[in-house]
Amino acid sequence: MKNKFSYVLGCLLVSASLTAATVEKRTLNNGNLILEDIPEIPQQLVDDLNRYQNVRSASFNGWSETGNGLYIKTRFGDVSQLHRVLKPGGARHQLTFFQEPVGQVAIRPDSQSLAFTMDAGGSEFSQVFLMDLDSGKYRMITDGESRNGALRWNDDGSKLAYQSTQRNGRSNDIWIADVDSDEKVRHKMVVQAEDGSWWGPSAFSEGGDKLLVQQYVSANQSMVHVKELSSDSLSRVAGNSEKKSRNFALDFTADGESIFILTDRYSDFNQLVVKELASGNETVITKDILWDVNNFILNDAKSMAAFTTNEDGMSKLYLLDTDSLDYVAVDDFPVGVAGSLAFNKNGDKLALQLNTAKTPTDVFVLDIQSDLKSGKLERWTFSEVGGLNTDKFVEPELVHYPTFDQVNGEPRKIPAFVYKPKADGPHPVIISIHGGPESQYRPNFSSTVQLWIEEVGAAVIAPNVRGSAGYGKEYVALDNGFKREDSVKDIGALLDWIKTQPDLDEDRVVVIGGSYGGYMVLASAVHYSDRLKGAVDIVGISNFVTFLKNTQDYRRDLRRVEYGDERDPAMRKHLEEISPNNHVDKIKVPMFIVQGENDPRVPVTEATQMVAALREAGDKVWYMNALNEGHGYRKKENRDVYQQAVVMFFKKHLLP
Length: 656
Hints:
protease; serine-type endopeptidase activity; 6-blade_b-propeller_TolB-like
């Protein structure tokens, strides 16, 4: 009721400013999905897209308590739920049956229970639940109001560390829940964060007397601390506030005297390092790998580790001997994106999730042998792909196009993944811009991209403009502060590159993007309206000042580091100058704006004020708002309508 009431208020504000014709409104999905000025979606289009919208995936969430079966999340209804799989290709036994998707899952050691997180309506104010696997009963152990996550059990399953805003609703503190044999839960705050950064637990030491702590300030600055749980001692062990560097906490060594971390203090990339706590000595393990290390896991004995690297968007898997610090790449590892690594209890199997251009995310298990040798990689889950023949899916080509500035006397090159239809061109073009901004487009399986290629006949280009992660610390900082619009110029350079490609049609180009990518879409419409045919903004920032004012308290300071502090007069002036809603007079392309009412990151007001400004200027805007969603659509019924409307928009503005 609250959501619908706030929506009505938003409509009144928008309607009050209208000078154009009356907005046509209708609702779908039991009144939860509001559509304004969006035409009826033809039934033929709904039918055509049905197969693409019934693709599933399976994410890995941990080994069972015996170390034989696996826990996964997959969707058989409207949202993803927790399942157990007991053998390769085995049945998926559903364990949770909620209206909302299950979030993080942490298997409790030596126990028939687990912890998981879940929010309501996409609010991201996740609560922590304990679930008994024998009975299926569960109970919430947090306060029902704060934001909680980053679950980490100690070795015997008696303590659960987690991040929470329960103290004041704003600060990201670290708490520990003691769960005794009677299943009573007592909570204690062990790290109090006061500076606006994010703090969270990474790992308990053997014996549970120390906690490895992560502090995140920005994409360019993070620190690692060690908390002595028997005292109030909190020691910073990697990174500092004076000289910015990225430092990420991984785990303790077996003796608890050293830690594994990732850091970019010795390179442009995140390297794997082992650090002696007493002496402070650090040994760079992956000094010969000139890419980011981005996943790391130890076996229970802490004698072996597995890690992945991100090499131009593709994952490579390595095994590491923690005594000698020697490592080897796993031979014949599939070309794709891997993550969520975990050894079983015996340490002879490594589970992971893997996504390729032609297969959705599924769970695989690698046999581990002695001397860093590995055996067969076996697929455990076979997610349905809606009857599609994924062998016919278009695979992307990695290109590097020149942009406006130079490096060592040569034009800087921007990496981009290009999907082209197999038919002859010239093809219309869909530019898909990722969010973040410190994120990265990687060549994952995407039924959405293939749907656009098949149904619209368009080429799809996904650029990693400056500010993207994965290409080193210098690249990720190139769009910070007053350099924000330099990333928009990279889209202008992409439009220039499209013009040079004989099989791409420079006169039929649209842009689509979500979150920060939504800002990029709006900014591109401001600067390049004469070169675009349409723009789709999904939960995007329309004004940086109002965004920073209205985003949730727990993330405001984190975003100020990235975008600039609006309390500084010079920066506030700059942020207003680059905010798209202040330049609607320059936008001359059809616009489709998509939003979730409960979005805690980019509040719904960013969408409503942009819609109002465009309509006041006399422009007709397609607007979709889901009252039971947050930062993106997680419920299939809403996501289906959104995807159908996007294809309809593309066909209307890209096809003759």
